[in-house]
UniProtKB/TrEMBL annotation:
This is Lipase. Pfam families: Abhydro_lipase (PF04083). Belongs to the AB hydrolase superfamily. Lipase family. It comes from the Eukaryota.
Length: 432
């Protein structure tokens, strides 16, 4: 039944893109300048490579290990730490201890600390940082698989899930950063965020400017603040319906998205199922739609050998309100706080419209990493962010045209294109 539902959704969205979203003579891919036949062939190659990758027993083992077991397997010391936020959420942090300066890694939407480790021993950023002597700390946002606790609220209730990335920036990041600084007896730390990990950081430093002094350097991978130019067709299709989220939360009692990692995860199941015959529907439009869901992977960069490990640890869950907040900002072409509606906005903010974040308060030295084929973090949106932030020291456009949103973590060339550049920036004695 689940597979049948996936099929119906995929077919309907494919027809939507083909007949409604675009001009009658063009599909959405053609509107974006993408050759449909070529793109379908790329997706077929991904599926074929995925099946072959499953024969790698070491990778299969990684898919079934939890995060501490995974780190121990590769002979790194690991610690688990529990951090309580000011509003009562219990967050798990993972540490690979070293004598060097602390580096804090913060994951993106639907992700967790695991995703800094699933590119393999040689290519995962966390392992590379640890090998260079850095004291590596990996955070987990409230609501993901590692942080589903509260001092008094059950995750089975709506109250637990009434947060977005605003609360992650206001409560989670400050609590974890203070914990790291206090534990290591350091004055500050270096911060690396991916996607939502950058959004929450900008929220924190905008709303709590004192935290600028606690961060010596910040590296933003696929930064997300202004996002209204994003080209992901799936997101653009869903965005106009964000106002109806109370139907999910208050009527259907659906509070979270992808609440747990499944060994044969949703992603894995969809990949296997779509090789045939769904890829034959509308010349492969269904497969293309799935690729959009994955964020635009291409077989030239995505390291499919590690796919079982990646999808064995992801997704890790998130609140519906995290998605809604992004969709609100996309539709309003702004970077502002959560929109509760006029009456509640007036009660909370003192105005009928949500206030915008004061990004010019973010004075931390920042390096922006972005790419041309990132459909969730458009180049022009990143440029707007760059022009607004007062202290951008490095703006790095990945020199590979097809590099996309998830390649910052899992590309087969992530070491040379991303991680080595990060290590170079971190090693500079000055703030970049």
């Amino acid at each position: 039944m689940r597979i049948l539902c996936y099929g119906i959704v995929l077919i309907l969205t494919s027809y939507y893109f083909y007949d409604v979203y675009c001009d009658s003579e063009k599909s959405v891919l053609e509107e974006l300048g993408i050759d449909i036949l070529d793109f379908t062939k790329e997706f077929t190659a991904i599926i074929d490579f995925y099946v072959e990758a499953q024969e790698n027993p070491a990778v299969i083992q990684d898919s079934y290990l939890n995060i501490t077991e995974l780190i121990i397997k590769y002979d790194y010391p690991v610690q688990e730490h529990r951090v309580q936020t000011d509003d009562g959420y219990i967050l798990k942090m993972i540490r690979i201890e070293n004598k060097g300066p602390p580096v804090f890694l913060m994951h993106g939407l639907l992700m967790s600390a695991d995703d800094w480790l699933t590119a393999g021993l040689k290519d995962s950023l966390a392992y590379q940082l640890a090998s260079e002597g850095y004291d590596v700390w990996m955070g987990n946002a409230r609501g993901n698989k590692h942080s589903r606790e509260h001092v008094s609220i059950s995750p089975e209730t709506l109250e637990f899930w009434e947060f977005s990335w605003n609360e992650i920036g206001i409560y989670d990041l400050p609590s974890m950063i203070d914990y790291v600084i206090n534990t290591t007896n350091r004055e500050n730390l270096m911060y690396i965020g991916h996607s939502q990990g950058t959004t929450a950081f900008f929220v924190m430093c905008s709303e709590k400017p004192d935290y600028n002094n606690k961060i010596s350097k910040m590296i933003a991978l696929s930064p997300a603040a202004w996002i209204f130019r994003m080209t992901s067709p799936l997101v653009r299709m869903v965005a106009p319906f964000h106002k109806y989220h109370p139907i999910l939360t208050h009527i259907l009692h659906i509070y979270e998205i992808f609440p747990r990692p499944i060994k044969e995860s949703l992603f894995t199941e969809m990949l296997f199922w779509t090789k045939t015959p769904v890829c034959e529907i509308e010349n492969g439009l269904a497969c293309i739609t799935i690729l959009f869901i994955f964020g635009g992977f291409d077989h030239e960069q995505f390291n499919m050998v590690n796919a079982p490990a990646i999808f064995g640890h992801a997704p890790s869950g998130a609140s519906i309100y995290q998605f809604v907040h992004y969709l609100q900002n996309m539709m309003s072409a702004s970077f502002r706080k959560f929109d509760y509606g006029e009456h509640k906005n007036l009660e909370i903010y003192g105005s009928t419209e949500p206030p915008t974040y004061a990004v010019d308060n973010v004075t931390v030295p920042i390096a922006l990493f972005y790419s041309d084929n990132d459909w969730l973090s458009d180049v022009q949106d990143v440029k707007q962010l760059e022009n607004t932030l007062p202290n951008v020291i490095e703006s790095y456009r990945v020199p590979f045209k097809k590099f996309n949103h998830f390649d910052f973590l899992w590309s087969r060339n992530v070491k040379g294109l991303i991680n080595d550049k990060i290590l170079q920036l971190l090693s500079l004695r000055t703030n970049f």
